Description:
By secondary structure, this protein is α/β, with parallel strands linked by helices. It contains 14 helices and 13 strands. The longest helix has 54 residues. The protein starts with 23 loop residues before the first helix and ends in a 5-residue tail after the last strand.
Amino acid sequence: MTDTTPGSWPTGGPSPATPGAVTLTDLLRVPMHRLRLVGAVALVGLLAALGYVLLVPAAVTANAVVAVRPVVTDAFTPSGAGADRAVNMNVESGIATGTEVVQRLADAAGGHPRDVRGALEVEVPTGGQILRFTYQAGDAQRAVQSANLAAQAYLDVRRTMYEQQRAEMLRSYDTSITKVAAQQAALQKRASTVKDTAAGDAVVAELAGINNQLTQLNSARTEIAAVDVNPGWVTQTAEKSLATSAGHRPLYLVAGLLGGALIGIVLAYAWESADRRVRSVADGRDATGLPLLGTVRRPAFRGSPRAVDADVRYVAMAVAERVRPPARVALLSTREDATALTAGLAVALAADGREVFVADDSGRTERLRATVLADRGRLPIDPSRPLVPKPRPAGSPAPVAGGEAAAQRRPSPHPPGARPSTDADATLTIPRVSSARPDNGRVVDPDEVSVGVGSVRFGTWRQGADHGLVLFNAPPAESDERGVAVARQGGAVVIVERDRTRQSDLRRLVERLRAAGVTPLGFVLTRNGRA
Length: 531
């Protein structure tokens, strides 16, 4: 039925895509196609940040700085090369956030130690002997008081620990001095009772050693008692004028928007990997392995859903090149409606003088007729419109057959049929019913739409059996098999709608056509909207 030009049909399925360089446009294509998803998730992030800003009260931060000093015997002795390592700042930071300091803050503020520990933060600059106490609270007064109290509590706790160590050392020295003093008293008592010269010299020598030991113990005790146990000073106290809000709250809105957009982009890539759509001609070729008959676009910057008429005419020329009457062409799609493109192709084919029959078995005939009538009015050149005759000069007689002027006749006062005739043999004149005839003189059937020098008729598939060129407006192939069945009797054109047709559905349709023994003419890539 259909005389198609020899075409290459891949025996091993669609050819694999040629690997190429990934550009920035390729990376942005997926988020742009999933713009609704990205915008929705970004809006959710913005609303979450706005709720946090409105519902969570703003926190005020106050800072107090403490300079930590090592405990030395002589405070006036110059520090050596390792003065910055004289104090273990990790230990000091642990003491500053320890249980005793936190408990003092909780007792003073009347809060729970867990809340105090979460609000208190101690920073240790690298290579320095400084502790920076940071406290967050709902108001500036409480933040300032808590920061200063934390710094002072640390100094008090550290001073108490040093004083306890000093007291323990002094107690140890006192015990040793008491023992040595007792030995000294015993030796002195022995020395007073010894009469032998040699024994007396030994006792005197032993007593001298005891006296030296006692002197050293007393000297060491004096040094321990003179140790300055001050752990440091508060070099910067927290004040209300120095208190700041914890972070810039408007930045939370920006962070929520950007974070939501980032999550949306990730979700867009995940969704795209699970639901691949045809985005370009290359995707259509990879999924079908068919030649491209043409691309049908929408008018740019017009907001119109209709297709570009010139694109439809180019596709019609490609289809006409591949078929010879009698031809049966089924326009197949996976899940989309190809009614608009079917009507556009019918108009483009009929404008060149073809008698096109548009078949539809899904109740879309009226839509097809309305679309054909709308497309017919946009034809660039319509040969069916007659040329406008030259106007005649005023008063000139109208020409008649034979070239003679028609005689002027007076109108009868009795028009035909106005009064009954009394003659029995009179002939009754019946007015002739004029047939539907367009301006170009061709007789047109009432169910036929004249397009250019051709025509378009509508009906079901069975009604178009005797016509030379039949376009079958097939229903979506995923839910109806009639399109593939009709394509077995002729040819098929696969309609691929960009950004909507799934590649998996398209591959499945091509496999079904191949299994049914159908050789498609090619595929047409359309845009979202009318075609």
